């Protein structure tokens, strides 16, 4: 039995696995350091990783679906992601 996975899906899976590994590693590092200031610093760095992974995986997904979904839905998806990122940066 041959399993076929689209390249876009495979890249998205790998990026999410890397992201999850970074999160787990950061949590273990916080536990090992046992220092609130350092844990806060590590958590701040993680706040940079999350949006980056979101943007990249969504971009890959939209590129993979470009011929399968209408342009208006693609624009709505991109707009939604931009609004999420905007809300994270606004006070």
TrEMBL record:
Name the InterPro entries for this protein. Uncharacterised_YqhV (IPR020390)
Q: Spell out where the chain crosses the membrane.
A: 12-33, 45-65, 71-88
Q: Which Pfam families match?
A: DUF2619
UniProt keyword terms in alphabetical order: Membrane, Transmembrane, Transmembrane helix
Q: What is this protein called?
A: DUF2619 domain-containing protein
Q: Which organism is it from?
A: Domibacillus aminovorans
Q: What is the lineage of its organism?
A: Bacteria, Bacillati, Bacillota, Bacilli, Bacillales
């Amino acid at each position: 039995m041959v399993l076929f996975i689209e390249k876009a899906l495979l890249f998205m899976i790998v990026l999410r696995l890397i992201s999850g590994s970074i999160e787990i590693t950061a949590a273990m590092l916080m536990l090992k350091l046992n220092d609130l200031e350092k844990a806060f610093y590590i958590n701040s760095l993680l706040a940079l990783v999350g949006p980056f992974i979101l943007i990249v995986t969504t971009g890959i997904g939209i590129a993979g679906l470009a011929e399968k979904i209408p342009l208006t839905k693609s624009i709505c998806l991109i707009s939604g992601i931009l609004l999420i990122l905007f809300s994270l940066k606004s006070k």
